[in-house]
Design brief:
Elements (H helix, E strand, L loop, with lengths): L2 H17 L10 H11 L3 H4 L6 E9 L8 E12 L4 E10 L2 E12 L4 E8 L6 E8 L4 E10 L4 E14 L2 E9 L5 E11 L2
Antiparallel strand pairs: 1-2, 1-10, 2-3, 3-4, 4-5, 5-6, 6-7, 7-8, 8-9, 9-10
Length: 197
């Protein structure tokens, strides 16, 4: 048995022992191993993200309120597979509100929950944004929802909706919607991306 396999087996065994009640600890049966493989192996849903690989130029537009004038900036990003094809990792650099901006996005598919997952973090916050949702192959659109915090006004768990559309092989758009002052959803952020490599 080689060491990577032994390490993986130890991780699985540990996870199963922690997850199961102590009186019902799982044995490492072929059925358990099959369930582990099914829920940890990248599949067709991950392959939907293949088009993200590459270098992108992005136009960013942000609205602070429904009637506010838009603020625009630009960024570039590079996306590649990480963790053996489980997560699409995107590194973003640019400017935002006149300041240097760095961001990192992880996008993947949760086999167990049967949904896409997005995790976003940047140099302007200590809190990640996490969203989960679906992909519609007919419209080539991801629709994810989550919650975020507004530390400026002290509000937690504000719902948001993120819609990402693959226009063609070299163009994609991401739009984010959140409640306005009246409680109605409005477009707060748009990224228009063009693949350059």
């Amino acid at each position: 048995m080689n060491r990577p396999w032994m390490f993986a087996l130890a991780l699985v065994a540990g996870a199963l022992l922690v997850a199961a009640p102590q009186s019902q600890a799982q044995e490492m049966t072929p059925e358990v191993m099959a369930a582990w493989a099914e829920n940890t192996t990248p599949g067709e849903h991950h392959q939907v993200l293949n088009g993200s690989v590459g270098k992108w130029e992005q136009k960013l537009t942000m609205w602070m309120a429904p009637d506010a004038p838009p603020m625009e900036s630009t960024s570039t990003s590079t996306a590649a597979w990480s963790f053996d094809g489980r997560w699409m990792e995107e590194d973003i650099t640019g400017t935002f509100m006149g300041m240097p901006f760095q961001g990192r996005s992880l996008m993947g598919y949760d086999n167990f929950r049967d949904e896409y997952v997005s995790i976003f973090m940047d140099n302007m916050s200590t809190a990640p944004m996490i969203a989960r949702g679906t992909y519609d192959p007919a419209t080539r659109t991801f629709t994810l929802t989550g919650t975020m915090d507004d530390f400026v006004v002290g509000t937690r768990d504000i719902p948001f909706r993120q819609v990402s559309t693959i226009t063609d092989d070299t163009h994609a758009t991401m739009e984010m919607f959140a409640p306005g002052p009246d409680g109605n959803e409005f477009l707060t952020f748009r990224v228009e991306a063009t693949k350059v490599e």
